[in-house]
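Notebook entry, structure prediction.
Reason for the run: the old model in the group folder had no record of what sequence produced it. Starting over properly, with the input documented here first.
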Amino acid sequence: MKIYNLLAPTLLVLLLAGCGNNPEDKKDAFSLEINNPKKTYTPEDALTITLNNKKGIASDSVVYFLNNDRIEVSGNTISLSGKKLGEKTLKAKIYSDGEEYEASTNITILSSIKPKLYTYKILETYPHDIKAYTQGLEFENDTLYESTGQYKESWLRKTNYKTGEVFKMKKLADHYFGEGLTILNNKIYQLTWRENTGFIYNLNTLEQTGTFVYGQSKEGWGLCHDSENNIYKSDGTDRIWTLNSNTLAEKDYIEIFTNTSKINSVNELEWVDGKIYANVYQQGSIAIIDPSNGAVEGVIDLTDLKDKVTQHPKLDVLNGIAYNGEPNILYITGKNWDKLFKIEIIQK
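New structure, fully documented this time:
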C-alpha cells in the first residue's frame, strides 16, 4: 500500500502529460477554410484561403498540398491553373518546434471546357470472330493484335484485320480473365481483370517473357502508351494510371471529368495524336481525354454501331479501339461482334 501511494502522484503526472500529446488535440489545432467556397471549381479558378490557428501555436513554416502534390501559395491565394481534375484534398502541413500539424478541406475540380460532340461514317467493314470477347485492340504496322476475355476463353491473338485470319494465338490459363493490351518496344503487355497480374510477351512469337502486378489500382481494364514510353492503365473507375514502362509500377493517375461530372467505368484505351481515347463501359461512346489533367475534350457517339452487327444472345457492348496513323480514322469492334468497322470521325 505504501508503494502504491508513492507511485500514484507520478502516474498521475504521466497520464496528464500523455493527455497533452493526444493526437486529437493536434488534429484540432488548425483548420483550413476557403473564402467564398463553391461546390465545384475549374482550373481557371483561384482559391482564397484562411488557415485558422485555433490554439495560438507559433508556427515555423506552412506547406500546402493538393493530394500529395506540393503547391505554391501566393499570399493566401492558390491558383488551380494546370492542376489535375478530380476530387482532391487541399492540405496544410504546419511545423512548430519539432511538431507537425495538419488541416485540410476537400474540393472538386471540373473541366473548364464543354466536350465537343462527334459522330461517325463507316468506310469499310471486315470480318471479326463472333466468339471473341474483345478487351484490347492495337495495331503494330498493319497487323492487328487482340486480347479477349472470359474465364477459360481468354486469348492473345495476332491477326489479319482485313480477313479475320489469326496468324498466331496464345491461350491464357483458365483462371485468368484477359483484359486490355498495348505494344511497346517489341513487347506486348496484357492485363487480367481481377487476378492482379499482367503478362509480358515477345511481339513476334507471343512467348511469355514476364509478369507484373498492380499497385493501388485494384483491377485491370485497358492499356495504351504514348510516344514518351509512358503506359496508361484503366481500372474500371474514373481513374487512368500512368505506369513506368520499365518496372510497370504506377507513378500517378488522372481522374476523368467533364465540365459537369466525372466519367466512371473507363475501359479500353487507345493513344491517338496526343490524346487518350477511352471506351466508356456500357455507354456506346468514346471519350477523348487530355492525358495531362483528365479533361474530356470530346465524345464520339457510337451507340447505334452495335445495331449493325449480327444480333445474338451473347452479343455485348462496344469495346475495342485501334488507330493506325490515319487522321480521323479508327477501327472499332465490340464484345462478341462479328464485324470490325473502319470509321471516320466527324464533328457534329
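Summary: Confidence is low (pLDDT under 50) at residues 1-20.
The old model has been moved to the deprecated folder.
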